[in-house]
Predict the structure.
Amino acid sequence: MKALGRQIVVEYYGCNPVALNNVAFIKRAMRNAAEASGATIVQEAFHVFNPHGVSGVVVIAESHLTIHTWPEYGYAAVDLFTCGDDVNPDSAFEHLKSELEAGAFNAFEMKRGILDVEGHVPVRHKPFSVPAEA
């Protein structure tokens, strides 16, 4: 069976609350996580909440990485979804665990798009993207 993608859903606990509330830090950590996984960054969007918290998405040619932070609880909810055989979401997971200074985590991985295809051919090309019209 071939899966089109891998999705790691993570809950990081005991994170640095100052980092979780710093949008510049979160942007940099998410970009670096995408790069660590071997992904191609296409676009990003981040939002700062009042009085605290950051949400963001890094759209990658191979899917997406998202984060939602609750600094008051030292908690971050993260979704790492990658497609293809050359991108490794485990690297993004480890990078964010370190950057956020997570004391603990819960994570599970799901294979997405499981197909019963004979003669699996690895997806080795880097997909290209066409900008969406606004």
The mean pLDDT is 91. The first helix runs from residue 17 to 20. The domain at 2-114 is CATH 3.60.90.10 (S-adenosylmethionine decarboxylase).
